[in-house]
Design a protein that fits this description.
The protein contains four helices and two strands, in the order βαβααα. It is α+β, with helices and mostly antiparallel strands.
Amino acid sequence: MKPPICAICDSDFDPNEGDLIFFKETAADKIQNERLAQPGFSGHPPNAVWFCARHLPLALRFQDRTLQQALVAIREGLESAPVTPDPENSRLPSDPDQSAGKP
């Protein structure tokens, strides 16, 4: 089994803070999973990857797709998600600190 490293952000996390998600099997995945089920074989299922708590909800929405299809959809979902501005770095020009020339 692969260690818990998020398939999206590559963060290394405690398994209790994320989950291993299984996606729809391709024909090749099915063959590999059948081999892994045989006595004496070990390895990581080809259609399963880890997601941290931050990316897990989005990953769960795409479990009905193959791994490759799901990863594309997850990344597209992240790209189209609204960005929450950082209050420390989002001053308006009318802010007193900005007009005084302070960063």
